Amino acid sequence: MTIELLMLGGAGEIGANSCYININGHGIIIDAGLHPRRRDRAALPELERLGGRPVHSFILTHAHTDHVGALPYVVKTLPALRMITTRPTRDLVEIMLRNTMKLFQLEPTVELPAGALDYYTPAMLETFSLLFHTAAYEEPIVLSKEHQPVGLSSMTDSNDIRLTLYDAGHIIGSAALLLETNGSAVIHTGDIKFSPQALLNGSSLPKHHVDCLIIECTNGADESPHSYEEEKLRLARFINHITNQHGSVLLPTFALGKTQEVLKIIFELMQAQRIPVLPIFTGGMSKRITKIYDRYAHTVPRREPGFLLKSIPLTYINYETMMSERFFREPSIVIVSSGMLNEGSPSYQLAQRWVTLRNFGIGIMGYQDPSTPGYALLHSERGVEFSMGGVNVTRECELERFRFSAHAQRDELLEYIFATRPKHLVLVHGDTAAIESVRATVQAHCDDISILVPEHGVGYQMEV
Ligand SMILES: [Zn+2]
Ligand SMILES: [Zn+2]
């Protein structure tokens, strides 16, 4: 049997992630991402590269913008797709797309396909969650060319595809996919985390042999993994140091996933008396997202089943009044988006003031793209003027970087590849260094694995 793979976005980078795969004549698009930085043609998946290829199903691995932000464009272009995701992801789609719509309103776009943004309206966004069929983890469903997704008992045609979603351990609702037909198996990891975080368990993806493994490589070049426990203790030391000098700590975080994990980490540190009980401030769209985490506290696997984020005492920030909030007078912890301090975001506005206060501290919590104010801040020197989002500032506050990645570490990626020993290995969702590092290591150890580093828009045939 031949499988065809065509990357519509997210090849060789973390971009407008979208992958077309044709198994046994059944065309499937996995994810429809918005590129984190580009606002030209590369902002959206290149659907025109499909040519006349058939597309029957759309599977959404999770609700981060680089996987869901182009959904309105895909639905407009291919309106008859059968769409499948998990229940938490379905609930998150509208919140995330509202944010995407704002991005398109604020940031000028060029050379997008005609009508590409037509469905980015509040009325349309409300309808998207209704389009999805939901599937539970580890309960296989059948993708048939003729029918809606159905239960296994209805699998009649040997060309039908059996789809099983597994917990990817990345954010709430995140799924890795196993596609099986005629004795062949394909796994697409989506964004994946194998070890547990503070709230979520690690991925439940099985480790048996597969014919084709499509795997993300975000941390593929990071050879010195950071222990979650050590990072937690470093964060505690930083919070104690700053608040002991009567300052407050600003933790810029992504609204979906990282904010909820960091809230849990801070709460655990307080409960273990590693830091004092301090006021915690958060806000923005993370409030609605946190509610969805709590909605599935019992039904989605997590380290402490039933744990509710609302049991953590929080104050929600009002953005209009935040510049006069009490965290400027009283030692506090402030957890707000964006994670990379994008211009105009609450974390960006607060950081403008924060940097001028010598006894305050900022903890950079995740990856910073070189084009962002967060990157400029991360590489700033204390007491030296620099440009943060086009504004010249001098950083007086203290700064620390913490690594709580929601992506698999390099050694975990390799361990998984060696365990599944795929006939075909496809490396995606990573920069060139990350993908090249994984490719070289696998090649050096297993000469029976055929490795593909796909390019955008090129169709690859794989015999399985
Ligand atoms: Zn993600
Ligand atoms: Zn991603």
Tell me about this structure.
With 464 residues, the protein is of the alpha/beta class. The chain folds into two domains: 2-222 and 406-463, 4-Layer Sandwich (Metallo-beta-lactamase, Chain A); 228-401, Rossmann fold (3-Layer(aba) Sandwich), CATH 3.40.50. It has eleven helices and 22 strands. The strands form four sheets. The protein has a seven-stranded mixed beta sheet. The radius of gyration is 22 Å and the shape is globular. The structure holds zinc ion (2 copies). Residues 62, 64, 170, 191 line the site of one zinc ion.
- Unreliable runs: none
Question: What would CATH call the architecture of the largest domain?
Answer: 4-Layer Sandwich
Report the biggest beta sheet as strand number plus sense, adding barrel if it closes: 7 strands, mixed
Overall mean pLDDT score?
A: 94
Q: Give the termini separation.
A: 6 Å
Based on DSSP secondary structure assignment, what is the total number of beta strands? 22
- Ligand roster: zinc ion
Keywords:
Rossmann fold, 464 residues, binds zinc ion, 22% strand, seven-stranded mixed β-sheet, alpha/beta, globular, Metallo-beta-lactamase, Chain A, 22 strands, 26% helix
